Amino acid sequence: MINRRTVLSAMALMLTISLFLPALGQKKSSASDSIKLPFETYKLPNGLTVILSEDHTTPTVAVDVWYHVGSKNEMPGRTGFAHLFEHVMFTGSGHVPYGLHDKLTEGVGGGNNGSTTNDRTNYYETIPANYLESALWLESDRMGFLLDKLDIAKLNAQRDIVKNERRQSYDNQPYGRVSEIFSAAMYPKEHPYSWPVIGSMTDLSAASEEDVKAFFRIYYAPNNATLAVVGDFNPKQAKEWIQKYFSDLPQGKPVQRPNVPLGKLAASKRLVYEDRVQIPRLYIQWPTVGFKHDDDYALSVMSSILSGSRTARLTKALVYDSQAASQVGAFANSAENIGVFQVTVIPRPEHTLTELEGAVDQVIQKFLTEGPTAEELQKAKAGLELNFLRGLESNLGKANQLINGAVFYDNPGQFSTDYQKTLAVTAADVKRVANQYLSRSRIVLSVVPKGKRDQASKATESEAVSLVVGNGGGK
Amino acid sequence: MRQQRFMRERKPFALAAALVLCIANIAAIAQTLDRTKVPPPGPAPMLRVPTWTRTQLANGATLIVSERHNLPLVSFAITFVGGSNQFEAAGKRGVAAMTVSMMTEGTTTKSGDQLSDALQLLGTNVNAGISGEEGTVSFVSTAKNFEPTLALVSDMMLNSTFPAEALERLRGRTLVSLTQAKDQPVVIGQQVFSKILYGDAHPYGQRTTETSVKGITRDDVVAFQKAYFQPGRAIITVVGDITAVKAKAAVEKGLAAWAKSGDKASFDYPKLPELQPAKIYLVDKPGAAQSVFNIGLPGPPRNTPDYFALQVLNTILGGQFQSRLNANLREQKGYSYGVNSSFGYGKGPGAFRAGGSIFTAKTDAALTEFMKELKGIVSERPITDEELKTAKESLIQGLPQRFASVSAISQAITTLTVQGLPDDYYQTYAKNVSAVTKEDLLRVAKQYIDLNHLAIVIVGDRSLVEGPLKALGVAPITYIDLDGNPAGGSAPSSN
Lengths: 475, 495
Prior knowledge:
By secondary structure, chain A is α+β, with helices and mostly antiparallel strands.
């Protein structure tokens, strides 16, 4: 499938989103007309999408580049590339020697970083306003000339660092391997969301220089990238610099988007994993939908009705009333093509995971029958405006918001649609998605102390998960 | 993520490198673009430090207001000078945190659930916490919800009923958290490091334990609330979309029932334990994939005249991604996902600390490199002009970031009063940083990074790292348990 982003006129298209929100039910609207984020967007002939948004409050600028490539674009056996690449992108490029990137960002009072998800990879610089041109130069050089200076030594160095990142963030963290256990259990083996973003130690070791270069040539081209500049700058000047540094980068081939089926379990699974922990934990996960599906709004509202405050349903029942749990959380997590709803429970001593699973089910069953109250719905939405406004305080936060819309919806103003659709969620919507998704087949995972498999919820029916605790060799 | 967040003190603008690049004809330049040329920076922006007013309220609290009208947001914070180190007894560690949690459990007119629902309907989160040397009760709200939120905060702070059953629930949950902390090598490392440096008799070496939590009574909580939340030691900071006049009226109305009481806390700490010769303190964590390093010793307080020199020094040594420690141990050697260093400052002798999580198989090699970099900054590898220049620029030009949000401004302003710094601190920051010389850096490095008395705390798999560390012979090894007590020198128990 070819990137179906509409080609906008090369002329800048000025958009200002301003929401005058409809009244919410009988209550007077709690939202103001403050949900605005002015921006301008256009496309270069080579396919690079550009978004500009001025904010002169602080003399700083954020430069943010997203590539529409994540771990789901990898092949089984070659996992972890998108993230490994994120690291390689900071090691210098054709005209940028190693170290200069940090010097022109961190070294002038700014910062830089990158992040990788299943769906996209991002890179950013936050800098004093007078360093905008050099930041654009840095981003353009690695977009166009990274491979000129990439060799096996550089690759190996970053590979070791990524292995350390894996050790630090997953292997040496109590309960740190839960997400990869779920990914592997929720999807069939070849499914693009079945492996962890950081990849496996074995695959990281196996990546050849040519593998990595081929990956770059496919995905790191202007037509697969979106650039946002947000903060204290002159738009005319910024456009000139963007033209200067990005316009001669060659367009890449059209990017094929994988056809990704939703997660679906033929039957429920019960798993148990032994970890270096003293207190067991219960995790329940149901497959849902990706974030482009309208049900995602109601699922997200449902998550804050079930947990987060002391009067949320699961929290009140388990942490406050029965006090069988120390903590409980309900999360609606969604990606571009898939989503899951997860409940996590940390028990108090003397309370078993079996008991807690029953208690969770009881709360959910009641919720499926009665749905949320008007007040629950109202509470769940009351913080939206404040969260939005606080997001506007940061150049980088705004940049990410705008790019997210551009990359996944061809619409940098998607945040306003999201806001409106969340406010429009009704009690009936929440009740429907609760019934539709939470009565499906699911995965129940118990994480228990080493040698204490009997502490799992319904231990005799649970299947043990064994993971390779690969140290990945290393140097 | 490419990197973890690096903690850093930041600074203002004053470097004058005003190279203005004049772009006359973009199209022409694009034809002959020379990408090897690093684009020079534009003229440095003017530093804009927010202004504020400071007044004394009738009840003794200090009120600071800074207006900012770009967004309809208001940040509110009450900062109490003095914290758990000043107000908790050694045997009652944890009572401050328990009291703060108990303030959400109900007032004379509202149950805990009613308070929670009221805040949810306002869409506002109230944060309250007490750290070693200060406490805060704070929130950021929309401008229109500022006064209703303040009314709830005031109710929680002044009229809490502290129901006994809530204390038992909280105690149970706190004990679970303490157990979970023992599974976290990073947390263990921090706790053991503090205990080794400061000992049990110094508040910096104490922490909340199962024993102290079990001993806290409702009376302790009530007494703590009474003794601590007093206006005489409070700084109330309001920043955002509200005028100074309205802010003062709102605070005086919202906190009208808060009667005058309390004095400034004093920060008299006991003498530090005698410094020990450099030693490795090894904490066994069987099966750990990494060894967590904390290397250091007690350092200077925040009011040290050496503050600016130390900030520059640490920026070069370990305050940033490109600093010496990370450049070597992560980027060159590949031993870690990130290592760093910091000075803790505070009203007392906050620690100098260097550390990070190291691949188990490279524990000994990493210690060699840590020691090499510490020796380097103290004597063997002089700081270059380039390092000095970059560190200063980085600190100075990072200053505007401190004023990027209402809560950031609140913190930046409040800290001046808490730490007794001058009102023109940010205006003079660049001058103070610029004045630091290489000689200053060498002097403070030698003075504060005392290589002969470093505590080297390593949490990792003893069966794998003990042999290599012994062979290295950097310092003698002492064995410590998860609580920081001697574990004896015998062979590790099997897992």
